[in-house]
Amino acid sequence: MYGTAPTAIWKSASAPLALPRVKINPAPYASYAGTAFSAQRQWQTLGSNIFYTAGNVGIGTTSPSVRLSLGGDDANTKLAIWDGGASGVMGFGVGPAQFRLHLHNPTNRFSFLDAPNGNEILTIQGHGDMRLANDCSIFGPDQLVGFNDLRLYGDAMGGPDVYIAPNGDVSIPGVLHVNNNAFFTNNNTTLQVLPGNLLGLGQANAATLEIPGNGVLGVWDNLTVSGTLRVYGNLHVGGNTFTLGGGTDPNWRRVEARVDDAGDGSYVGVIKTIGANGNLNARIAWIAGYPDHGSAAVFNRNGTLKAAIYVDSNGDGALVTTRKSFREPDPEDPTRDIWYGCIEGPELAMYVRGTARLINGRARIELPDHFRKLVDEAGMTVQLTPRSTESRGLAAVRVSLDGIEVVELLNGRGNYEFDWRVEAVRKDHRDFRVYHPWNEVLTAGNNPA
Fold it and tell me: Which residue, 235, 244, 250, 334, is most buried by CB atoms nearer than 10 A?
């Protein structure tokens, strides 16, 4: 039935309040005959406000136990904050042991703003992603938990910038910045990063890394160092190669230490350095076939071997090079050094010597081919020493690379042995200099002082 509430029952300081028509269920209205309008009288108005202070209000229940109760039944939506009809509802609901706050669909989002019409500072998207605006933080008294994994994004476009997998693995594609001490522990092995402190010593403005305890830093793989590596104890690299390179060096392999398989279960260490042009310029290794015999070799800018010192198959030390010299400071002029080439004379020379025999006062000396191939004929000298007291003296009457003619002086006809020595300058080193500036050859890395 329809009725119109009388205006006399409303308390108002102004004109009587006109009420709309309401539809009343006859059955409950009959059961509460005589009280329906008295219940309405408990609502009061003050200006444009309407309020009720006498008890609890129930919707869906006749016995509300709190100020406003929506009853004790389960419902996906018990209170709609926004009701777009059957196609769109946002609000509150409940299920068994569950309180629900729901959107219309996964494309919507839960948003927390810093003012009624302010900025979104926390957003939970309908599909479960949560994003913080600007530099907001998440604080937890104990844990920050992800269901299967945890992904943290620095911005909406990239990422994830931090990814924690279900098994506990952490992936950080960018830079991990630790502003204080950092400890990484697995059983009895601890890696420590201690800013400003290295092995108990203060290091101002230094980023330090150490393995505490026995002072052993172990790497079971290749180790590449682009900056400064300082180890006070032992450094063990368990892989095959350890390399060093500068931080801006595109090559990254200027120094290399590795382990080579010499065969038959033998392993030998090798150290080599790379020049500025990327070619090999020095190597410390071993002699092929003799893994316990060491060698050191140097190379020119093209990577061609130019000098080596090694232990040969007999266990003797050997030096092989294109030029051999000794160098001493000039005792009268400290601005220069004196260089002698082997055979320790003021030139790079070769010699051959032997014993020959005069027959009727004449002899011919044949020079070996290995001597003739390398010497300058114009600079040859000959020394002759007779082995007979009857000798009238000897003369080299013809000196050439084809042979040396020897005769006895004063038309002698002697038949006896004599010693000979032939010396000559090497033809590729005719311009050998005795005097050099003292710092003309200075080993890289040495202090000129």
Answer: 244
